[in-house]
Amino acid sequence: MTSAKSARRPHHWRRDVIELAALFTAVAVADAIANLIGHQPDGPYLLVASAVALTATAAFHTWWARRHSHAPPPAPATDTAAPAADDSDAPATSDAPGETVLWRMRTTVRDVPGSLAALCTVLARHRIDILTLQTHPLARGTVDEFLLRVPASLPARELSRAVAAAGGGSTWTERADAHDLVDAPTRVLGLATRTALDAAELPLALRQLLGRCTIRSLPAVPVTGRATGETAPVEGVLEETVMRLRDPSGGVITVERPHLPFTPTEFARARALVELDARLGPRVPRGEQVLTLPEGNAITVRRADRADLEAAVAMHGRCSEQTLRRRYHGPVRDADRYLGHLLSPRFGRTLAVQTASGRMVALGHLLWDGDETEVALLVEDGWQRRGIGSELLARLVALAGEAGCENVYAVTQASNTGMVAAMRALSLPLDYQIEEGTLVITARLAATPARPLPQLPPHEQAER
Description:
Elements: H1 4-7, H2 13-38, H3 43-67, E1 100-109, H4 115-125, E2 129-137, E3 142-151, H5 156-165, E4 169-175, H6 184-197, H7 202-210, E5 214-218, E6 237-239, E7 242-246, E8 252-256, H8 264-280, E9 288-292, E10 298-304, H9 309-318, H10 321-328, H11 335-342, E11 348-355, E12 360-369, E13 372-379, H12 388-402, E14 407-413, H13 417-424, E15 430-435, E16 438-444
Antiparallel strand pairs: 1-3, 1-4, 2-3, 5-8, 6-7, 7-8, 9-10, 10-11, 11-12, 12-13, 14-16, 15-16
């Protein structure tokens, strides 16, 4: 490198004089030699031979300098460097772009400088692109959670072996999709918004926040009237693969994920969602839609909650014993005790049907049952066979699809042809299981989308 001082050195006139003198001297010497040789008999031939010899010498010197130069080789056409000599166990990859898939990966590394860099280096050798990264500090070590774009030709087992060689332990991988491309703060804010708008969204928000897990809500006093003994402190309890949170409406929310332990960061996020739900109190979106039945009667469909308990009990009193038995599959005298549980937004969503006079004539329930979702209908005897059950069922299945449920099932009796017909009207793949007269019909929502809700003319539809 040239220093600033030498770069500013002044140009002296004596240097120009010396260079001119050397040039004139060289011309004079060349002229003398040319005159001396040119007047000889073979002078012209000697001059031509000298010129050829000089040209050949210059060409040989250029070739020799290029062949034995110590300069570094020119950069390759691509920006991909060749693997090091000691990386013989790395898989051979080509520079041509290929098909890729999204993977979620979680691994535990030592909490020392350079551990994450070593892991990222291994991923780069396998042409894996890191899209997002979250860190979950532990008492010993750190859990790193990645969203990766992986070559489709790379199996998950080879990826796990490479991560283990880089120092990762307890590695877990799962296929991801485009929905996972949302960053963690945005996803958490979206789930908090859903929870704030509807109390029934809390179990679904927890499931989307924590991934594939089982969530159960246990009431403080179950329908049997006997306490279960399940309690949780206000701050909650974290036990490896199980967390217990106090339900704001009473009871306990239990979250289980046997395949992957929860981290303190995940526990803090789940507890924050539950605390938000507790501060906002009971809430259900107050919207209703007026429909006209084929015979001309107008009915109203709306969300229901525990404020409708009295109207629901009155509807039970107008239903026949056979209708109640088909719905609850047990002693009719216990039917009223289920209503407090069914109308709670914590355990699912309930739709109610009212007549123009305000009398409740039907209830439809969408119940969260761990990993599964149940649908149940009850229509007052005098309003059956009018399409109310099919309308309620279609709306409940649409709600299940919005909540991300893959399947819904209905438990009824084999002789309940009305419920069977309503399930078949969904135009979804159905599975049937019959055990001792009890029929379980499961509709697979992931296979085929449910039919859209009917669009009514403006004079038949009202939104409040």
